Predict the structure.
Amino acid sequence: MLREIGVSSVEELFHDIPERFRNARFSLPPPLSELELKKELAQLANLNANLDDYACFLGAGSYRHFIPSVVEHIIGRSEFYTAYTPYQAEVSQGTLQSVYEYQSLICQLTRMEVSNAGMYDGSTSAAEAAMMACAITSRNTVAVLATVNPTYRDVLDTYCRGKSLSLVALESESSSLPADCACLIIQQPNFLGYFEQLDAYVQKAHDAGALLIAIVDPTSLGMFKPPGDYGVDIAVAEGQPLGIPVSFGGPYLGIFACRKEYVRRMPGRIVGKTVDVDGNPGYVMTLVTREQYIRRERATSNICTSQALMALAAAVYLAAVGKRGLRQVAELCYHKAHYAARAIGKLKGYSLVFPQPFFKEFAIRCPVPPSQINEVLFRERIIGGLDISHLIDNGMLLCVTEVNTRQDIDRLVKTLGSS
Amino acid sequence: MKRHCLLPDISQPGRIGCSLPDLDVPSGDLPPEELLRQELELPEVSEVDLVRYFTALSKLNYGVDTGFYPLGSCTMKYNPKSHEDIARLPGFTALHPCQPEESVQGALELMYRLQEYLTEVTGMDATSLAPLAGAHGELAGLLMLKAYHEGRGDKARTKILLTDSSHGTNPASVAMCGLETGVVASDASGDLGLKNLESMMTEEVAALTLTMPSTLGLFDPKINEIAQLVHERGGLLGGDGANLNALLGQAKFGELGFDYVQLNLHKTFSTPHGGGGPGSGPVCVRESMVDFLPTPLVTGDNGRYRFSSPPRTIGRIATFHGNFNVMVKAYAYARSLGPKELKRISEDAVLNANYLKEKLKPYYHLPYDRTCMHEVVFSGKKQKAKGIATLDIAKRLLDYGLHPPTVYFPLIVSGALMTEPTETESKETLDNYIAAMKEIARDAEENPEILHSAPRNTPVRRLDDARAFRQLDLRWEIKSQKK
């Protein structure tokens, strides 16, 4: 090959790199063979308390749900995971049609009119929705309800500062919206687990000429009223509960759906159905003039991925559980969480913080700091709830899903009662 | 299963694709009626039908495991299977992001070691793994440099200079930070025009962002002069690390004068592209920008690892700690490479690209005829004269069972064919591609219709993009049966 190229050594091919920068020193450990690699990485994995061995009651934006084996097997097909962005539609129909399925399933689930192909995660979806609302309304203030997940609010803050937009926290239902308000962001159910008066907030936003952005829990939609039925303008969600492992926080999936009239303002990839020259149906990336690789600085966003493999997982999950299964999963979460809450509420020194209806997460007040309680629980191979004592005195946010057995819940209650 | 069917077509009332447990606790009161959903219309599909449906779909796809995938700038190298197995260990997947730090020391140690590894490979001083993709890393980089200048009380620097060969994400990221873009034209040899830079590098300029090597696959020999000029004028030099593959084990961004660089683990560090995500886009920075890194970082102290936040961080850019499972695969890849193996990657990648360049330049116009790095950009100029578009060449390649290069990018090459073979391909694979490209060049002369009508051997033929755009059909709909 060197002869064909007309050089005598590979080094010659690097002659454009100035001599002084070439042959930099790299101080790296010696390489591992496949056998050694597997052993070393398994050792690292074993240093972690994995949730297959613990009962876990953490939620707060990442949720353990049952994942049918079929999900992992389908996304594990290398035709899906070793492909890239479907620029060549003729050899990418597998990805493209899957995205069309995903968009359809998300619309069915949320009762919104259109969905994009997927975003990074729930919080960045919310931030992109806020940017989109500002572009639609030509306004520069983003209002967020104080009960939205604090990490989402942090991400919103980062994005808003970047674009010099003001971010205003709305403390309660009676607070009025700021002038120049582009959107109001609500989480339903909220970070503390309970349901907001979403219809009232939709009214409030619309009265002020602002859009209503709802952050929803996709699993809850198996049982609870979807954002589309509330008249929400943009619905976003963390898609992880739909067949994606918790994986220490990523990769996840940002769900992004909105009213059809805003489709040309949407960030991210969108797939549409069309026909080929023979009249056969097929799928392509469409409305691409919104995207960075065509429109550059005038694009609706800089996003270049659609978390395609995670969106595929969500599509397979929704199809596997289907109409009946999603409802069943939601009901299991609801009843188990309420069973746990009832039992904990009866324990001496513990109380439920909020009286409002909730889905699978609820805040409790503990008799001592939650950090102490969590240490006790951990010794019993239980990972307790999130310490929210910075928000509520001795507060803990618990989450119960269908993966928590009655035995787990009873063990949790018993240990709480004795600590 | 019928061809062209969708999930609703294989749905039958009462079917389900998995089994779920019964309720094992007493059920309580239902929530108020007004909160409840009236109807839920999702498909009802059995497990076997579901598997066959998606298996059939997968067969319509082309991936790196299917064949040669020289998609320029995307570094479609082969992804070792062992990394997939490792990433599926429950000790990595079954970890909640809010677990106590003591219970996830292995995960934190892995992140710490990956930070250190990337810092060393790029010659920088620190790395944050928080960004979730390349463009997300770009955004983080720009937010950091904005914070850096503002921190020095310099609020006048609102412009980012880019080259005319830059990725589309670059200007889009600039716009997301409320900054302006200035485009520095390339010179005749495809490098940055130093004279142009000289005149554009004013006190308004916050940074110059360069892809190194460029999207033309060229390493700019004037890098030192460029870095000096930018720094002398008070600006920063940012790197789009999409093409790091060409520099692995050879040169370091830090030593080249870059102040920050964003990486794409799914390109250089061999984590699968997933059909368009998930990726991971760490940012590596020099000392002057360490304090601004996005949160969180992993800090190690006497074998104990914990999350920390830099003092003047630009803040949180994602819900949790980054795409951890992608990091596991990237770390596995990194651990299989010592300094020698790292260097071998860039050598083989550059060798392969130059081999393609020499073998194909008699047949395709080569706008910049000089030694290339990891990719080579041809143009369809010769064929265009015969009425053949670059797109026709790309579509004809599909008939050979090959994935085409990136087409019509970079924008400064008209009808570009941006070809990146990567280091994992053999000479035989390259020769097979070269043979196909030669035949296509011949057909362009002698049998142009075969190119115009390509592809013929694919699951579908050329699709009507205009119709997709005009008659938007973005979903199917199952309407409720209830009256």
